[in-house]
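Duplicate of #3305? Posting structure anyway:
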């Protein structure tokens, strides 16, 4: 007979994840995007692959800051998967790569539970060691690549060479690691993808927001958050909800032309210093009206930061049972109103800023109206 103790143990994690390995964007011009992310966001160029390294069809720049690796890839051909991806979606996140100890096993466990194959496992080697990769599809054309880098000591992956740019302005701004990556999916599809992460990847549902939580006078959305077993990887999923006017999620879907990654949230441990420097470098953020700050102390209680500096930088603050968080959202980083970034500093809070949704979405709607898309 099974003892109650055994029954109480959680099921073994069939997809143990060490964290996010990299996020890869397919872009129209990787050379210029790499300059933007270095000069504006303080990433450092660490590796490169392209014609000079024997690739005939693409070029990729690998940028790093803290534990974050961004890969910017562009096509060299008039017709390729990358070219078609950029034509369809504009610049966008193609790969959310997950660092695993066993890529083949990750592929087997997820595909046998119904994951759609992006590519079969394969191993690549160079003088620095070997890496095994395998890929499955998530929402839209987005892929999760499992990266097993055992003892690999090269700058990124076999085939990439170390490269630095020596940009004087490419100094880090305090970005530490990826906190969460958010996906936008179509009408009625949120639960399908939450179920995908639960059943196929063994994630657990953390939080649910319905359209009463996230609605303004005009537009609404629904959101659920899933997390892997150790909590290192968190994926909120949004879908549009009915409102008087067009939901911001619908605007994204109209311009991305499919589900896809809406924003990547990046952690800092000094958001005031980070955002001051990002603003100085020309990064544009959404702003909330000054009325947001009028009763902020009443809503969230005491915080360590001086409220005047929080207001001057237009930071948002929210509190949950475990602490508080400060956050701010960039405007979209391409001409289509699609992908953007969040900067977040957690001071105990494990939530996602629910108390800010209304103020934030009203700010997004003002931008939407300026684009003629509300
Ligand atoms: Fe977020």
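Output from current build:
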């Amino acid at each position: 007979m099974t003892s109650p103790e055994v029954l109480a143990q959680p099921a073994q994690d069939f997809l143990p994840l060490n964290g996010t390995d990299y996020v890869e964007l397919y872009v129209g011009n990787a050379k210029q995007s790499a300059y933007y992310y270095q000069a504006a966001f303080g990433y450092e160029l660490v590796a490169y692959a392209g014609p000079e390294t024997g690739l005939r069809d693409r070029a990729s720049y690998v940028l790093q800051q803290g534990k974050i690796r961004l890969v910017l890839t562009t096509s060299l051909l008039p017709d390729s998967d990358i070219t078609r991806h950029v034509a369809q979606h504009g610049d966008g996140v193609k790969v959310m790569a997950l660092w695993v100890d066993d890529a083949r096993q990750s592929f087997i466990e997820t595909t046998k539970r119904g994951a759609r194959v992006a590519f079969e496992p394969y191993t690549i080697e160079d003088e620095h060691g070997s890496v095994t990769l395998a890929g499955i599809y998530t929402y839209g054309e987005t892929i999760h690549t499992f990266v097993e880098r055992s003892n690999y000591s090269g700058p990124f992956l076999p085939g990439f060479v170390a490269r630095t740019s020596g940009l004087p302005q490419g100094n880090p701004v305090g970005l530490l690691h990826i906190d969460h990556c958010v996906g936008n999916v179509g009408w009625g599809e949120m639960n399908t993808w939450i179920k995908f992460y639960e059943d196929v990847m063994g994630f657990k549902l953390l939080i649910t927001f319905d359209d009463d939580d996230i609605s303004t006078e005009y537009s609404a959305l629904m959101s659920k958050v899933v997390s892997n077993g150790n909590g290192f990887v968190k994926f909120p999923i949004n879908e549009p909800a009915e409102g008087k006017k067009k939901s911001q999620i619908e605007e994204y879907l109209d311009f991305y032309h499919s589900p896809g990654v809406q924003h990547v949230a990046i952690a800092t441990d000094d958001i005031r210093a980070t955002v001051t420097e990002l603003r100085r470098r020309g990064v544009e953020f959404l702003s909330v009206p000054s009325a947001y700050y009028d009763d902020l102390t009443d809503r969230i209680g005491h915080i360590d930061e001086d409220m005047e500096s929080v207001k001057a930088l237009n930071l948002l603050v929210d509190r949950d049972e475990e602490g508080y968080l400060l956050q701010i959202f960039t405007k979209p980083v391409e001409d289509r109103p699609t992908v953007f970034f969040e900067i977040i500093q957690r001071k105990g809070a494990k939530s996602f800023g629910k108390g800010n949704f209304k103020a934030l979405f009203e700010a997004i709607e003002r931008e939407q109206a300026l684009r003629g898309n509300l």
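Confirmed duplicate; merging threads. The longest strand covers residues 117-126. The chain has a mean pLDDT of 91.
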